[in-house]
Amino acid sequence: MTPVDTESARPLEITDLTVEYTSGGYAVRPLDGFSARVESGELVLLLGASGCGKTTLLSALAAILTPTSGSIRLGDFEVIGLKGSALTRYRRETVGVVFQAFNLVPSLTALENVMLPMRAAGIATRAARERATELLEQVGLGERMTHKPGSMSGGQQQRVAIARALVQEPKILLADEPIASLDLRNATIVMDSLRRINKEDGITVICNLHLLQTARDYCDRIIGMRKGVVVFDGPPAELTEAMAREIYGGGDPGDEEVELALTATSAPRDEAAEVRTGTG
Ligand SMILES: Nc1ncnc2c1ncn2[C@@H]1O[C@H](COP(=O)(O)OP(=O)(O)O)[C@@H](O)[C@H]1O
Ligand SMILES: [Mg+2]
């Protein structure tokens, strides 16, 4: 029997998570008592209409924002309220984050972008270069290391961002709509990379999506959110058409946005992202 790595074998337990803002005298609650337990090594896709609280949830899990109430426990430690060096370590070593906008530095090559967090953490150039090379090879970009973001496709840029998020060997990878601005081919490559990272490296992956079919294709478990709470949690096969409509706000049949989310295999091509040109 292989020894259990207790560091990485901790479940993530989210209980009654609430985030409230006051805006123009009204309370807005992007999270309104969200609860779920994610086992170590799971790949979970969070599905929900725009505005249902997906980004807020990932931001709370990444300790980028502090929820109003509730708890986020990783094994026996509480994430909410972490301070100082414990907070820095959590953000640096426990969670990796990938955003829809890749947030790469345009003037740096793919290799330099991946090396950046290691340089910031004081890791020697040579070791950082070796690790960055290995990570870029893992996401299938071994041939593109000297390319700058402006000369790469959206899918390639997103994979550079994924490699960068893996630098510190996070236990949990949080991806916020990583394929929203990609065409079908690039979306498939990026989702395949996420799945491989999950299966081969055993990293827990929690990924926001708004498209049903992609969620169905890529995971064993979907959490459906609506208005800040869980309305579905189970395998794709159990997600009925009626439940999917419920997730998307019980939209009337024919509602264009809802129909697209239910039927599209990928987001429509975002021209702005595709024609993005290099500035450096
Ligand atoms: N800082 C904030 N102040 C006020 N309202 C916010 C703030 N952040 C998010 N919201 C609101 O919370 C809701 C959920 O937002 P978000 O988590 O971004 O949803 P999603 O990622 O599912 O589209 C939205 O209605 C949004 O306007
Ligand atoms: Mg969002």
Written description of the protein model:
The protein has a single domain (12-275), classed as Rossmann fold. Helix content is 36%, strand content 23%. It has helices spanning 54-61, 84-94, 110-120, 125-138, 154-165, 184-201, 212-218, 241-247, 256-263, 271-275; strands at 12-23, 26-38, 43-47, 69-74, 77-78, 95-98, 172-176, 204-209, 221-226, 229-234. Helix 3 runs parallel beside helix 5, helix 4 (125-138) crosses helix 5 (154-165) and helix 5 runs parallel beside helix 6. The termini are far apart. Residues 1-6 and 267-280 have low confidence and may be disordered. Magnesium ion binds at residues 54-55, 177.
Summarize the structure.
By secondary structure, the protein is of the alpha/beta class.
